[in-house]
Design goal:
homodimer; 250 residues; alpha/beta; putative 2-phosphosulfolactate phosphatase; 4-stranded mixed beta sheet; 10 helices
Chain lengths: 250, 250
C-alpha cells in the first residue's frame, strides 16, 4: 500500500491587532496571543529601563495599597506616581531616570501606574497566552521577539484613563512596521497606527509635543523624561510576565 | 454714582471631542453637548439622503423586531440589513440608492442598522443635550449647524461592532477641520482624526478602499454605494432627533 506523504502545509501568517484603549480589550480574543502592554509615557519605558539596568524583577501591581504590601513582602523598591508626585507610602516615582544600574541592579521593583499596570492585569484576567511590555527604549528587542515567536499578537495601548492616546498608538504603529511582512493585518486600528507612525517616524520628537499627554507631563517639568521615552533601543530588554513578575527575557 | 459697565466677557470656545467607538461613549460627559452620530458606511449617509429626498421623518430603532412593530404602527417603510441582505420581515435595505425622492418623499422610514442606530440610542440613554447625524453627503450642513449652535460637540463614531473604523474617523476629522478655529480641541482622538483626514482629503476615494469595511461591503458588490457615501454635500440636510424621530432641520 502506498501512502502519500502529507502535503507540505503552507503556514499561514499570524494576525496582529491593535487595541487602542484598555476599554476595548474585551472585544478581542487574546487566549492564543502574546499581548504587548504599551504605556510609552512612562510605565513600560521605565520597566524596560529597570530590567536593562539589571533589576532582578518587576512586580506590577494595580493599586498603591498592594504596592506597599508587596514592597514589604519582597523587600523591593516601591514606586508609583499620581499627578506627577510620588504616591504617599511609596518610595520612588515612575521616571526611567530614577532607575540607573547603580541603583536598581539586583533589586526588585514593585510598581503601580495610572494606566499600564492596570491594563497588564486586565490582560492577565482575560487569559492572555503570554504578556510582555513594549516601549521605544526596547523597541527592536520586542519586535524581534514577536517575529521569533510567530504567534498572534495583540498590541495593547494603555491610553489615558481608558481614552485613546497618540504616543502608545505610535509605538504600536512602529511595531507593525517591523512585523508587517510576517503577520496579517485585518483591522483598521492597526492600519491607522501604522500610518500615523510612518507619517511621523522622522519627526517623532516634534510631533509628540502636540499630544495631550506631553502637555500634561510637561507641566511637571518632565520633558527630558518624555524625550528619553521615545528614544529607540536605548534600553534593550524583553520584559516577560512570569509567575507574578516581569523578568528580562533577553 | 458712576456704575461701571460690566467688562465685555471674552466668550470661551466650546470643546470638541471625538469618541472613536460606541464602547468609549460612557467616558464622556455628553449632557451639555450636541452628539453627532457618524456611520459613514452607510446608516447616516442613508439617513441624510432620505431626508434630503423629502422623507417626512426617520425612526431609528435598535432591533429588527422593533422595526417591524414601528413599521406597523406608523405605516412607514421598514429597512435593515445584516450581512448585506435585507433582514427577514423588513422591506428595504440600508443603501442610500434605495431612497430617491420618487420613492421616499413624504414617507416615514423606520430603520435599524448594525452600528449607527444602536449608538444613537446609547447617546439618548446617556442624556445627550441634542443628537444629530452626520455623513459626507450632508457634511457642510452639519458643520454649519454646529458652528451656529456654539455648544460643546461630541463626534461619535459608530465603528464596527464596537471596534474602531477609519471611515467614521475620517468624517470626524473633516468636521474638526471645518470647526477648529471656533472650538477647542484637547483630546488625542480629535488630533489624530483631523490629521488622518488632512492627509487623505485629496485621495479619499482611493484611501477608503484600504479599509476593512470597504472590503467587507465590496464582497456584496456595494462599491458604488460606498463611493456615494464619501461624496461631499450630495444630500444637504440636518437630521435632528426630536420626539423619537430624525427630522430635517435644514
Amino acid at each position: 500500500m502506498y501512502i502519500c506523504a502529507p502535503m507540505a502545509q503552507k503556514k499561514s501568517k499570524p494576525s496582529i491587532h491593535t487595541v487602542l484603549t484598555p476599554q476595548l480589550l474585551d472585544l478581542y480574543e487574546i487566549k492564543d496571543s502574546i499581548v504587548v502592554i504599551i504605556d510609552v509615557f512612562r510605565a513600560t519605558s521605565t520597566m524596560a529601563t529597570a530590567l536593562y539596568n539589571g533589576a532582578r524583577k518587576i512586580i506590577p501591581v494595580d493599586s498603591p495599597e498592594l504596592c506597599i504590601e508587596m514592597g514589604k513582602q519582597t523587600g523591593g523598591v516601591t514606586a508609583g506616581e499620581r499627578d506627577g508626585k510620588i504616591i504617599p507610602g511609596l518610595s520612588y516615582g515612575n521616571s526611567p531616570s530614577e532607575y540607573p544600574r547603580s541603583f536598581i541592579e539586583n533589586k526588585i521593583l514593585v510598581i503601580t501606574t495610572t494606566n499600564g499596570t492596570k491594563l497588564l492585569h486586565m490582560a492577565l484576567k482575560q487569559g492572555a497566552k503570554d504578556i510582555i511590555t513594549g516601549s521605544f527604549p526596547n523597541f527592536s528587542a520586542v519586535a524581534n521577539y514577536l517575529k521569533e515567536q510567530g504567534v498572534p499578537v495583540i498590541l495593547a495601548c494603555s491610553g489615558w484613563k481608558n481614552r485613546f492616546n497618540i504616543e502608545d498608538t505610535l509605538f504600536a504603529g512602529a511595531i507593525i512596521e517591523a512585523l508587517k511582512d510576517d503577520f496579517t493585518i485585518h483591522c483598521d486600528s492597526s492600519l491607522m497606527a501604522n500610518q500615523l507612525y510612518c507619517q511621523h517616524k522622522d519627526d517623532l520628537a516634534q510631533y509628540i509635543q502636540t499630544t495631550t499627554h506631553w502637555h500634561r507631563l510637561a507641566a511637571y517639568g518632565l520633558e527630558q523624561d518624555m524625550l528619553y521615552c521615545i528614544s529607540i533601543d536605548s534600553a534593550p530588554s524583553i520584559p516577560i510576565y512570569k509567575e507574578g513578575a516581569l523578568v528580562n527575557g533577553l
